[in-house]
Prior knowledge:
This protein is of the alpha+beta class. Helices cover 33% and strands 25% of the residues. The model has no long low-confidence stretch (mean pLDDT 93).
Amino acid sequence: MVTAEIYYARVCGLCTKALEFFRARGVTFTAYAVEWDGEKEEFVDSENTRAMYKRCGEHVDFVPQIFFGNEHIKGWRKLEPMIQSGEIDSLIPKPD
């Protein structure tokens, strides 16, 4: 079964919305916290940040970054229309 992996920042309200959506839908996921440095306007270097950059294939400056296997959802602005259209349902594993 494919589970979601979500890179998020604790200070990110849209990350909270994404996490709450997946919890409410009963989606199994692993959440990786990254920290935003507002003064430098970049993510703080950490193991999770480096893994996020590698997984995204570039340095990104926003979260959440959501993965279902190789499917990459780049932030709430991509996730929200997928929720509204029902497209996200094709990625969410169905319980056995």
